[in-house]
Amino acid sequence: MGLGVVSLLDAAFRRAFTSAGLRPGSATIDADTTVHFWAHRSLLRPSSSTAATAATDQKNQPRPVVVLVHGFGPGPTWQWAAQVGPLSRHFDLVVPTLLFFGASRTRAPARSEASQAAAVAALLTGGNGGERHLPGLVPGTGGRTVHVVGASYGGIVAYHLARALLQVQHGGGVAVGKVVVCDSDVTKGPEDDRALAARGGVEEVTELMVPADTKTMRRLTALSFHRPPKYMPECIARDLLRKALEGRREEKIELIKGMTTAGGSQLAPLPLEVLIVWGEFDQIFPLEKAYKVKEKLGEKATVKVFPNSGHLPSQEEPKLFNRVILEFLLQPSSSNGSATS
C-alpha cells in the first residue's frame, strides 16, 4: 500500500509540472557532470531559428525566467508542485535537480553549495563549452531576465547561483533579476548544526538531515512542519524515506559536510533585491536567523514572516506563499541591481 501511495503522489506531482508546460531534460555539463532538469518547453528550442519565429518573438516579447532550486528531501517535483502552476502563468520556469538528487550526478570531488550553483549556472548559460542546454533562454533580441528562488539548502545554493550569474551575465546572455531565499540560513555555522542536532535528539546533524531510518525521519518531519501529519503508516514512511534518499545517502551526507557557510564570514551582500521568506515556527533554522541573513545580504534585502508555518511555508501555506512570491517578482525593480554588480 505504501508504494502505491508514494507512486500516486509522484505521478500527481509530475503531472503538475507537465500541466504547467514543463518538460524533463538532461544536460551534460562536462565530462564528469550531468544535470537533470525540468524547463518550460519554450526554453528547449531556439526562439529565433527562423525569420517567422523571430517576427513572432518581436511581437510576443519573451517572458522572464524563474529558476526554482529545491532543498533536501524528495526531488523538485515534490517540493515545487504547488508553485509551478501559478508561477508559470507569468514566467518561464527552470527547475534543476541538484547534484546527487534524482538523475543529476558528478564524478568531480567538490561537494560545496557553490559547486552545486556552478553546475546550475552552466545549465543556464552554457558554461565555458559554449553549448546551449536551454537554447530558448537567449532569444535573438537579447538575454532574458532570470530570477532565482531557493528553499532551505536550495536557498543557500540560490545565493551562490545569483553570484555566479552576475559574473557571467553579459557573456552568458542572461540578466540577473531578483532573488528569493526561503528558510535558508546562509550564515549557518557549526554551533547551529550542534543546536539542530540537539533538537533532533541525534549526535550529528547529518543523522537528522539524511535519516537512516523512519524513526529519525519522523523527528525531522516534526521539526520541519508547524503542523506535522498526525499519523503516517510505517509502510508509507519507509517508501517516503526511500524516495528521499534515492540510494545516495552517503553522497548527501557529503553535501552537508561540504557546506562552506562558515557562519556567514565569507558572505558578501548581493547587489540585487532579495526577499527572505521565513516560517515563524521554523525549528530547523529558527526565525532569528532570518534577520541575521538580512544583515549579511545587504540593504536590498527584506524579510517576510509566515505566521502559520515552520520550515516549509511553500508547502504549509502555498496560496499565501505563491501570492507573496508573485507580488515580489512582478513588482518593477526599484533599481537595476544587476547593473551595479
UniProtKB/TrEMBL annotation:
Residues of the AB hydrolase-1 domain: 66-323
Ranges that cross the membrane: none
InterPro entries assigned: AB_hydrolase_1, AB_hydrolase_fold, Meta-cleavage_hydrolase
Pfam entry (one): Abhydrolase_6
PANTHER family, per the entry: AB HYDROLASE-1 DOMAIN-CONTAINING PROTEIN (PTHR43139:SF38), SI:DKEY-122A22.2 (PTHR43139)
Protein name (record): AB hydrolase-1 domain-containing protein
Lineage: Eukaryota, Viridiplantae, Streptophyta, Embryophyta, Tracheophyta
